[in-house]
Design brief:
This protein has about 350 residues and is of the alpha/beta class. The protein has two domains: about 110 residues, 3-Layer(aba) Sandwich (Rossmann fold); about 160 residues, NAD(P)-binding Rossmann-like Domain (Rossmann fold). The chain contains eleven helices and twelve strands. Strands 1, 2, 3, 4, 5 and 6 form a six-stranded mixed sheet that branches. Helix 1 packs across helix 11, helix 2 packs across helix 3 and helix 10 crosses helix 11. The radius of gyration is 19 Å and the shape is globular. It starts with 13 loop residues before the first strand and ends with a helix. It binds nicotinamide-adenine-dinucleotide.
């Protein structure tokens, strides 16, 4: 299959591949849409088995960012970058400096931030060569790590879904969290504080033990997380957790978590709807992090300091948007992900039409 035939390519404005022999950088920057503003989305570092896997991931993630930014009501389009490599062994300052030069080459159409495998410290190296980097520490406009804000948005979304689907509050609700990295760990803390009973898994056993000890949680093996007796399943690891294979095993009545691209296929979304599971569309519920990043981009562009109140107002608005999606899905008796996709596409198309008319 060629790039242009890939179903994930559809709608992309541009896809840029970069390699730098000296530092070993192999990166892809995918720009899905700039209709609402410059494309924004994090950078993921992952040991993809093939370049094609990396490309497909970048395409899927960048389109999701267009939808996410539209649903978060941000004046940003959607893009994403991936660096092929093992973040535990292959990170160097030179690698991220080369990545910074790659971003600069895209000419301001793409703003990056952190995602899986990439930290604010890594991005500081990229920043030496381009200003289109957000999610940094140490300057007045800086928003820092977006994960706590992502987790706060997910926490509010889980609470909303539990109230709607289970007609109760979080106290005593059993939540299974897959992945206790940045987002999963903050989410676990918040849910624990609200009285939820947690069942956790992670392939990183050290992180798993640490988070479980801090939140009185039960630990299960990664493959067993789909079989546990939980009210809520919160995917907070990588994409594709909800599939036609895992769905028959999932007993939760709510699926709501921080991971991107949780549905392995659109069929999985329809199947969970048929099973009566309430699904909070991933790119709606996990928009907190990009809202935080958008706060930094806004501050940088205006030459102002970061404004947490602006971020909080956008988080409140995001919760209302999730509620609107759930209401419309209930009213039309249709899957939540289809409703969210339609609203996001309409917002992007509306912006594109406005831009064309201007
Ligand atoms: P992270 O790398 O800190 O955490 C991911 C965790 O998942 C790691 O601890 C990893 O060991 C674990 N994991 C990987 N594969 C697993 C498996 N098969 N079973 C169990 N655990 C597994 O990343 P993060 O920043 O917490 O992001 C988590 C997810 O949320 C990703 O999908 C990311 O794209 C998405 N997301 C993150 C943010 C953010 O602000 N960081 C914002 C929006 C969406």
């Amino acid at each position: 299959m060629t790039l242009f035939d890939s179903p994930n390519f559809e709608g992309h404005e541009g896809v840029h591949a970069f390699s730098d022999e000296k530092s070993g950088l192999k990166a892809i920057i995918a720009v899905h849409s700039t209709a609402r503003g410059p494309a924004a989305g994090g950078c993921r570092m992952w040991p993809y088995p093939t370049a094609e896997d990396a490309l497909e991931d970048a395409l899927k993630l960048s389109r999701a960012m267009s939808y996410k930014n539209a649903m978060a009501d941000l004046e940003l389009g959607g893009g994403k970058s991936v660096i092929i490599g093992d973040s535990r062994t292959q990170k160097t300052p030179a690698l991220f400096e080369a990545f910074g030069r790659a971003i600069e080459d895209v000419g301001g159409k793409y703003w990056t931030a952190e995602d899986v495998g990439v930290s604010p410290a890594d991005l500081a190296h990229a920043r030496k060569f381009t200003r289109f980097v957000a999610g940094l520490d140490g300057h007045p406009a800086a928003s820092g790590d977006p994960s706590p804000v992502t987790a706060e948005g997910v926490f509010r979304g889980v609470r909303l879904c539990v109230r709607r689907a289970l007609k109760r509050d979080l106290d005593g609700v059993r939540v299974a969290i897959q992945g206790v990295g940045h987002v999963g760990a903050y989410l676990a803390e918040k849910l624990h504080a609200a009285g939820a009973k947690l069942i956790l898994t992670d392939v990183n056993t050290e992180a798993l033990r640490r988070v479980a000890a801090a939140t009185d949680a039960e630990i299960v093996a990664p493959a067993a997380i789909f079989d546990v007796d939980a009210d809520v399943f919160a995917p907070c690891a990588l994409g594709g957790a909800v599939s036609l294979d895992t769905l028959p095993r999932i007993r939760a009545k709510v699926i709501a978590g921080g991971a991107n691209n949780q549905l392995a296929s659109p069929e999985a979304g329809r199947e969970l709807f048929a099973r009566g599971i309430l699904y909070a569309p991933d790119y709606v519920i996990n928009g907190g992090g990009i809202i935080n990043v958008a706060g930094e981009i806004r501050a940088l562009e205006r030459g102002e300091a970061f404004d947490p109140a602006w971020v909080d107002a956008k988080l409140d608005r995001l919760a209302l948007t999730l509620e609107e999606v759930l209401d419309q899905a209930l009213h039309e008796r249709r899957p939540t992900h289809e409703i969210a996709n339609e609203i996001a596409r309409a917002r992007i198309l509306g912006a594109a039409e406005k831009r064309a008319a201007a």
